[in-house]
Amino acid sequence: LFPSVEEQKQISNYFRNLDTLITLHQRKCEQTKKLKKYMLQKMFPRNGAKVPEIRFYGFTYDWEQRKLRECAEFNPKSELPDVFEYIDLESVVGTNILSHRTESKSSAPSRAQRLAQKGDVFYQTVRPYQKNNCIFEKNDNNWVFSTGYAQLRPVNDSYFLLTLLQNEDFVKLVLDRCTGTSYPAINSNDLADIDVNVPSDSKEQQQIGTYFKQLDHLITLHQRKCDELKKMKKYMLQNMFI
After folding, report:
1. Count of alpha carbons within 13 Å of 32, Cβ hemisphere only?
2. Among candidates 226, 196, 173, which has minimal Cα distance to 32?
3. Are 114 and 144 in contact (CB under 8 A)?
4. Residues 6 or more apart whose Cβ sits within 8 Å of residue 218
5. How many CA atoms within 13 Å lie on the side-chain side of 41?
6. Can you give the pTM of this predicted structure?
7. CA 90, CA 71: separation in Å to the nearest integer?
């Protein structure tokens, strides 16, 4: 079934514009991901160096080597609320919390143990190569994470710490300490014992954290817009043809 030539032209122009927008946001998303990967390599010291190749103006001191446990409190103890929102290992993708479910303390899975506080960083200790790690940024006090995550309460900047944990060099250090083959995992004590390089000036940590937070925001923005446009295209394909 075909409409008039004029209507065909209008329909094709509409879908051409949608495809152009989808391609644009896909390209922007991929470009930003490449930029993030490049800057992760350049803004953190590599191969025993004491300073990174790219640095914000005004910072000159050598970075310091510390145990990860010196940068954050691990798995702080707390009393769970009677009802809470539960985050399991499938809930976090990339650096975003995509799903959660309501649980009661009496019937929740035994792994529901990590009561989140704003600013806490959650690190996936099972299959850490997936890099599904996040910052809890809500003011709520009734969100609980699975023990499949190590809970880190940062001494300084949360986003700097998250970025450090996402760095490929750090992931390699973690994988070297993992046990298991199908589901490689690291326990919190071994994770806390890893040596990391951090700026001695907390302001430098904050600037690095802010920079990568902005990059992650752009990646999420373009990915979300791309997904919305694809859904719209699918809907319109179903409804603009007989």
Report:
1. 19
2. 226
3. yes
4. 28, 32
5. 5
6. 0.86
7. 27
